Amino acid sequence: MKQIIECVPNFSEGNDMSIIKQITDQIESVEGAKLLDVDPGKATNRTVVTLIGEPEPVLEAAFRAIKKASEIIDMRKHKGEHPRFGATDVCPLVPISNISMDETVVFARKLAERVGKELKIPIYCYENAAFTAERRNLANCRAGEYEGLQKKLADPKWKPDFGPVEFNATAGATAVGARDFLVAYNVNLNTTSVRRANAVAYDIREKGRPKREGNSVTGKIVKDKEGNPVMIHGSLKECKAIGWFIEEYGIAQISINLTNISVTPVHVAFEEASKKAMERGLRVTGSELVGLIPKKAMIDAGKYFLRKQKRSVGISEEEIIKIAIKSLGLDDLKPFNPREKIIEYLLEDNTKKSLINITCKGFANDTASESPAPGGGSVSAYIGALGVSLGTMVANLSSHKPGWDDRWEEFSIWAEKGQALKDELLYLVDEDTVSFNKIMDAFGLPKNSDAEKTTRKKAIQNATKYATEIPFRTMTKAFESLEIIKAMVEIGNPNSITDAGVGALCARSAVMGAFLNVKINASGLEDKKFVNDILAKGKVIEEKTQAIEKEILEMINKKINK
Predict the structure, then answer these.
(1) Taking Cα atoms as reference points, which of 427, 419, 549 lies closest to residue 489?
(2) What pLDDT is attached to residue 35?
(3) How confident is residue 215, by pLDDT bands cut at 50, 70 and 90?
(4) Which fold would CATH assign to domain 355-561?
(5) What is the mean pLDDT of the chain?
(6) Which of 282, 306, 520, 556 could lock onto 501 through a cystine, CB 3.0 to 4.6 A?
(7) How many CA atoms lie within 13 A of 478 on its CB side?
(8) What are the residue numbers of the active site?
(9) What fold does the segment set 4-178 form as a domain?
């Protein structure tokens, strides 16, 4: 599974689009980094750029953009309403999928070190990437802005985390950080009253509302000893909110910024807003997502509402997201297309042919053609995916069986495991063909000189090793599916045990078929320790698979005869 991060650099130029284009051209020059958005602001004289991809390409693209900005933006001439202290003012990294915040921090500091060292720009690390508590807050790092930077650098307390202590007059300084994903999210109300929308916003936002004497609306604001208003905090952490009226839709909304969706997810904000609105005689009619959202946030929302209905969460990703859209009312004001709003979907290469996206007939036709791929490895993975799908089907049927309502969660857990294995095996359908193509590419490398022959041989060996590991992964995942299939024969809906039995036959075929590919590919490897190890492990998996399959079929036939 690919690790995906987002990078949101802010550049101190919002009027001259030729300058901005030079910067964004640098981003687009890096393969694997995708430019998602460019948002210039004239009054702020600042442009917010969003790019995304796997960590290394994103870091390279960010570095090139920062370098170009330092060459073509002169901070001595910069004026704007937004606080700033550098040509590239801030450059936060945001974990999106399959990557932790701790891992993201490592990448942020790696970028910070390179920029400081190679570009001679003072770098302050902030938010989660900060080395000290005081520097977590961006406002502290940027205090004094560009005009006070030279004096700040002279203070030992504010020595940069990376880069020189010397003042860079044209580029200024840059803050590099790691932060959580921010979701801009609006909740729709059945009212036109901004005051009532604000009341709900104050109920839920972390900051809350000022405490008042007597009347909660018109009473005098209570202040502490320092003269600051005493606040009654709202019910949601990491939540900012305000009410407003949207002329376009003719309704009031609660405009919400969720600054950490791991603390307050979208579905929690929706439910809490619905609850507080109801208490005030209002009704939430739906919601609106502004910008993009990570897939996990939508999956979490869909599963939350499925569990609330006491339904199995072990269904396809597409169905889970459909439940999320309908439950949150994201299509209340206008159509919601997940392919345009979910970050991971925007990263997909739709020009690349994928076996799992063609029809069953198309897959069979491709396999039957004169092309050597897809071959036995892809077919084994697909058989395995079908096998675990049958086991998952039995789990889902069991969770909905009349009279078994109190067991829905038990079967949901099994179905969820099955879906994960199905998705992995479907990935391996295409990856087996990818691994075959890697071998073909390696054989196509030049072999004129001794150096080229050495490089070619090494590439062939590496590609062959990978082509051996992929069917071995198919073996392991198909073998793991037998646990689900066996459980469904033992405890699942008795009317569907033969479906589970066919699943077991598929799993067995997937393991044995993939093992044939492991053996043939391993025969071309020079690393005998690797070969002996993977063949020994494969033999054990094959033998265990055959034994479990036999046990499952005996159980099924016994139940049928009974």
Answers:
(1) 549
(2) 93
(3) confident
(4) Four Helix Bundle (Hemerythrin (Met), subunit A) (1.20.120)
(5) 93
(6) 556
(7) 40
(8) 82, 432
(9) Formiminotransferase-cyclodeaminase; Chain B, domain 1 (3.30.990)
